[in-house]
From TrEMBL, chain A:
One of its GO terms (cellular component) is peroxisomal matrix. It comes from Calycina marina. Belongs to the WD repeat peroxin-7 family. PROSITE patterns: WD_REPEATS_2, WD_REPEATS_REGION. It holds the Pfam family WD40. WD repeats lie at residues 104-137, 257-290. This is Peroxin-7. The keyword Hydrolase does not apply. It comes from the Eukaryota. SUPFAM superfamilies: WD40 repeat-like.
Automatic annotation (TrEMBL), chain B:
Its cofactor is K(+). It catalyses: an acyl-CoA + acetyl-CoA = a 3-oxoacyl-CoA + CoA. This is acetyl-CoA C-acyltransferase. SUPFAM superfamilies: Thiolase-like. Its EC number is 2.3.1.16. It is an enzyme of class 2 (transferase). InterPro entries: Thiolase (IPR002155), Thiolase-like (IPR016039), Thiolase-like_sf_Thiolase (IPR050215), Thiolase_AS (IPR020610), Thiolase_C (IPR020617), Thiolase_CS (IPR020613), Thiolase_N (IPR020616). It comes from Calycina marina. Keywords: Acyltransferase, Fatty acid metabolism, Lipid metabolism, Peroxisome, Transferase, Transit peptide.
């Protein structure tokens, strides 16, 4: 155990890319890792267990190519799906050894994100640098649906409130929301296309139109708020975390959280508190934020962009921070983070909050 | 950049730009940039009397495309599409340009289209190809432009307006001749004859100096054609490698003596308007990753383009409308730009646009423009890419804008970065 009640687990030779708490067991964590910073070499999925002796690797699975993301099955407590650099998506069962129970090779470039549907639990999704999101059923040999984003897609996520709403953020600086209930058409179920950097400033003198706009930049991560069904946080290369209300998506961000010095690699809303989120950044810090929604009304027609507040910072990683996740169980503040420094850290957000 | 590891590194290193914006952002090199690996033009010669007066437009295009293949050493079979801007040819020149591509050495598998957005056709051709590459429709393409004003300039170029079009007050303005409406615009916007002549004389002087210093040599691909010598009536074979509109001894004072062409009390004349010319230009475009894989020399990259509509009678203000729009898209401002290539359709409109955008006159058309060496309508937009990129490279500068006004009331602008 490290200082400050922080738990530490090393992944020798393997740089961390993603971390996820099991939705079934409070002591189980999956970590996706890669050799050589994910540029070349193998990947490894660690299944870690927390116990009296700290964190131990219960099992691991090696893969041919780098692993960039992992998502636990929501229906089967022993299964998790991984996103691989070779374009494959693999489903592992931790009761078995060595090999995945299913592997799908459809993406034409690196798969960077996987997400399990929280409502329709027989469904998960993957997104890739090939400019697509693919939707899968663990029992089917081929993808169920392919949604084009036409842009390197760094992150995909399901709405926690709907079985059929899925979103993505991409290198083209846009947040896309797809609703699979819409009829098949040339729009490919796309219902929102939100420029994360804001609408272009207008020359015809609309006052305030330029207020929200900044430069387009690659968007790397996003997450749905667990309590406000229309709220999504996005983050990426321009270092700013933004929250959007899909009911007025083109009205610009609800809140802008500025502070990271380099790109933000991952954002995650708290499962317990509606205004709190965590971020992991290339600036080697993980930060805790309040989006300001508890203290000021948001979405008012004349409201300024809420400036949320950084309420804590965890600086114990010594390389790029790539993954972060909240523990769903117990007291509301435990989280896990991974980094290229080959460490999984499990820590309590409340211990690093500013008084 | 061929190994997967290097591609991954390229992708991920883009994340570390931090708070990059504006000029720094467009200077970044990313694998999915659309880059120019070769660009050139024929010389521009005077309509009706210059070296290309007896050369068909399609033959000029053959010359430009052939030179592009030779210079870039690209395998023509890898080029998937060619877009050719042209204004005057019947049917847009679609048939003879496809034939020209075959003559130039492209295989039947290389597609071709012609397009017409009036004086910006050559730029539109480059932008269409760049967009098709960005969208993944094609991997490698050529944006080109050509015009033989010697053979195709005249009243036939515009279809008679129907009663319906004539009945609409703004619509009928679309056919007002360029000279007349520019005269009116110069009057309304108070661009004086003196200022126009000074601007035009400076265009001639800059072009002459550039020609003497050999600054057009890189962009011009010499072309050998048949030419009927008017003195001897004999057919000769000549090689044209210089713009023949550029001439010495032109000053604001000498231009001041020319009679106005469109109105007695007017200010526009042959010396302060663009010349009627023949010529062609071509630009080879592909993704940076493709260029690196093929070992192509990267001359610059395409960043963004805009098109804007203005009132038909004020078509000359087009660049004034289009340039701020493209700045918005790219997130830069006028001071981030090192060179502006703004087509000199008329000294009056070019001057008005640059004054009203607050541009530094030193940055505008440093090698002169259409007043000095001509404006073969469909070719100009593609010509500007060569003129701009070679000059930026020569000076060690980076960011350039090409822009022009467009007949019937439009403007177009594009941002390019030299590398």
């Amino acid at each position: 155990m490290a200082a400050n009640g922080m738990l530490e687990f090393q992944t020798p030779g393997m740089n961390g890319y993603a971390v996820k708490y099991s939705p079934f067991f409070d002591d189980r964590i999956a970590v996706a890792t890669s050799q050589n910073f994910g540029l070349v070499g193998n990947g490894r999925l660690y299944i870690c267990k927390m116990g009296m002796n700290g964190i131990e690797a219960e099992k691991w699975f090696d893969t041919q190519d780098a692993l960039y993301d992992v998502a636990w099955s929501e229906i089967h407590e022993n299964q998790a799906v991984v996103a691989s650099g070779d374009g494959s998506v693999k489903l592992f069962d931790i009761n078995l050894n060595e090999f995945p129970i299913q592997a799908w090779q459809e993406h034409r470039r690196e798969v960077y994100s996987v997400a399990w549907n929280l409502v329709a639990k027989d469904t998960f999704a993957s997104s890739s640098w090939d400019g697509t999101i693919k939707i899968w059923n663990p029992h089917r040999p081929a993808s169920v649906l392919t949604l084009p984003t036409h842009s390197c897609t760094y992150s995909t996520a399901w709405s926690p409130h709907s079985p059929s709403v899925i979103s993505s953020v991409t290198s083209d600086s846009h947040l896309r929301v797809f609703d699979l209930r819409t009829p098949a058409s040339s729009s490919n179920h796309l219902v929102h296309l939100v420029p994360v950097h804001g609408v272009a400033p207008r020359t015809n003198g609309v006052p305030g139109a330029e207020m929200y706009s900044s430069q387009p930049s690659e968007c790397l991560s996003h997450d749905w708020n667990k309590y406000r069904p229309e709220t999504i946080a996005t983050a990426g290369v321009d270092t700013i975390i933004r929250t959007f209300d899909l009911r007025n998506a083109m009205g610009g961000p609800l809140a802008q959280l500025a502070g990271h010095d380099y790109a933000v690699r991952k954002v995650a809303w708290s499962p317990h508190l509606s205004d709190i989120l965590l971020s992991a950044s290339y600036d080697m810090t993980c930060r805790v934020w309040s989006d300001g929604s508890k203290t000021q009304p948001v979405g008012q027609p004349n409201a300024m962009v809420a400036q949320g507040r950084e309420i804590g910072r965890m600086s114990r990683h010594t390389e790029f921070c790539t993954g972060i996740d909240w523990c769903l169980f117990g007291s509301e503040g435990w989280c896990a983070s991974v980094s290229w420094d080959k460490k999984l850290l499990v820590w309590d957000v409340r211990a690093i909050m500013r008084q | 950049m061929s190994s997967p590891a290097q591609k991954r590194l390229g992708q991920v290193s883009g994340h570390l730009g931090g708070k990059v914006s504006g000029r720094d952002a467009i200077l970044q090199k990313n694998p999915d940039d659309v880059v120019v690996t070769a660009c050139l033009r024929t010389a521009f010669t005077k309509g009706g009397k210059g070296g290309f007066k007896d050369t068909a437009g399609a033959d000029l295009l053959v010359g430009a495309l052939k030179s592009l293949i030779e210079r870039s050493k690209i395998d023509p079979g890898l080029v998937e599409d060619i877009a050719v801007g042209n204004v005057l040819a019947p049917g847009g020149g679609a048939t003879e340009f496809r034939a020209a591509a075959l003559v130039a050495g492209f295989p039947v598998s290389t597609a071709l289209k012609s397009l017409n957005r009036q004086c910006s056709s050559g730029l539109q051709a480059c932008v269409d190809i760049a967009n098709a590459i960005s969208a993944g429709m094609i991997e490698i393409g050529v944006g080109a432009g050509v015009e033989s004003m010697s053979s195709q300039y005249g009243p036939d170029a515009v279809t008679e307006f129907s009663e319906l079009l004539e009945s609409h007050p703004e619509a009928k303005n679309c056919k007002v001749s360029m000279g007349l409406l520019s005269e009116q615009m110069a009057k309304d916007r108070k661009v004086s004859r003196k200022d126009q002549d000074a601007f035009a004389a400076s265009s001639y002087q800059k072009a002459l100096r550039a020609q003497e210093d050999g600054l057009f040599d890189e962009e011009i691909a010499p072309l050998t054609v048949k030419y009927e010598n008017p003195k001897t009536d004999n057919w000769e074979e000549i090689t044209v490698s210089k713009d023949d509109g550029v001439r010495p001894g032109i000053t604001a004072e000498s231009l001041g003596k020319i009679k106005p062409a469109f109105a007695k009390d007017g200010s526009i004349h042959a010396g302060n308007a663009s010349q009627i010319s023949d010529g062609a230009a071509a630009v080879l475009l592909m993704k940076r990753s493709t260029a690196e894989r093929l070992g192509q020399t990267i001359l610059g990259k395409y960043v963004a383009a805009s098109v804007a509509g203005v009132a038909p009678l004020l078509m000359g203000v087009g660049p004034w409308a289009a340039i701020p729009k493209v700045f918005e898209q790219a997130g830069i401002n006028k001071d981030d730009v090192d060179i502006y290539e703004i087509n000199e359709a008329f000294a009056s409109q070019c001057l008005w646009c640059s004054n009203n955008l607050g541009l530094d006159p030193e940055k505008i058309n440093p090698k002169g423009g259409a007043i000095a060496f001509g404006h073969p309508l469909g070719a100009t937009g593609a010509r500007q890419v060569s003129t701009l990129l070679y000059e930026l490279r020569r000076r060690g500068e980076k960011v350039g804008v090409t822009s022009m006004c467009v007949g019937t009331g439009m403007g177009m602008a594009a941002i390019w970065v030299a590398e």
